[in-house]
Amino acid sequence: MRTDGKKPSGLQRRLARIGYFFCIPYSLHFLVFIAYPLSFSLVLVFHKWDIVSPMKWVGLANFARLSSDLLFFRALLNTLVFLAIHIPLQIAVALFFAELLNSRIRLRGFFRAAYFAPVVVSGVVVTILWQHLYAEETGLLNGILTKLGLGRVPWLSSPYWAMPSIALMATWKNVGLYIVLFLAGLQGISPDLYEAAELDGASRWRMFWHITLPMLNPVVVLVLVLSTIGGFSLFIEPYMMTGGGPLNSTLSAVLYIYKQAFYFYRMGYAATLGFVFAVIIFAVVALQRRFVEREVYV
Q1: What is the pLDDT of residues 143-181, one digit of tens each?
Q2: Which of 139, 236, 247, 287 might form a disulfide with 123, Cβ 3.0–4.6 angstroms?
Q3: Where are the domains of the chain?
């Protein structure tokens, strides 16, 4: 719209119509795949529906059921345990390798591509690969431990080892993306800052702590948020590797919602779990940004 009081010309009107035309595909996508599913899910929250029978209005009964569903809270706790292991490990590993790849080493381009390769591999393929690595009798990891004179580890059959094992695998799968993000952030830091600090006699550790980390704060926040959202979405790994066991120790919140919907056909209850879970994710991400995000001054 023009602000000078003049009417738009014919060419401007035609260009505006063309712009609206190009918005149609995204508008249709938004309506069909975002707006409609969200609206339908909101309706399901207040109904009982098993796909076959007609919907039955139950009001807030789904929320009342949720408040006493101990298995959902167990699944939520499992997801938080996964995040507590996965996020610090992923940030530390990604930042470490980004620092290495930012230095002048031979075959730097090859290593950058190699670290990113697992990101583009199908999650199902990665899960099957790590299942073989974790196999208690024939797995490569236990084979190495046996040759070192150590005992076999029940990576996926022990309630104590299963979730850390899944967190380790998820870190290997996703760390390449965060290496790229950290590497981009490192390359955006002016070398003059390090040169000035070196002239003042600062050690490498002090330069890392007082220059690198503060300048990388926007990237750290981005990685933290993406890792949190991705971690809360944990599904393929426990679904394929353990089915949520042993003893529900790897039952993630998303896997539990999936089972409620497609194992027991409790669509209304699954929708309620999904909305509550979305609110929890939003709250966690908001808290992270509140306490981690800082202004960067150059």
Answers
A1: 999 999 888 999 999 999 999 999 999 999 999 999 999
A2: 236
A3: 10-61, 64-119+173-292
Q: Which two tokens stand for residue 57?
A: 């209005």
Q: Check whether 93 has a pLDDT greater than 80.
A: yes
Q: How far apart are CA 239 and CA 163, in angstroms?
A: 12
Give the whole-angstrom CA distance, residue 223 versus residue 198: 29
Rounded CA separation 162/246 (Å): 8
Half-sphere exposure of 10 (CA within 13 A, CB side): 0
Nearest of 297, 270, 286 to residue 75 by alpha carbon: 270
What would the two tokens of residue 116 be?
Answer: 């990113």
> Which is nearest to 113 in space by CA: 124, 96, 101?
101
pLDDT digits (tens, 9 = 90+) for 208-242: 888 888 899 889 999 999 999 999 999 999 999 99
Residue 2 has pLDDT above 60, yes or no: no
Q: φ and ψ at 296, to 5 degrees?
A: -110, 125
Burial letters 160-196, b for 16+ CB under 10 A, else e: ebbbbbbbbbbbbbbbbbbbbbbbebbeebeeeebee
Residue whose token pair is 């918005």:
23
Q: Domain spanning 64-119+173-292 has what CATH number? A: 1.10.3720.10
User: What are the helix (H) ranges across the chain?
Assistant: 10-30, 36-44, 61-67, 70-102, 108-120, 123-134, 140-147, 162-187, 191-199, 204-207, 213-215, 217-232, 236-241, 253-262, 267-292
Tokens of 67: 């408040």
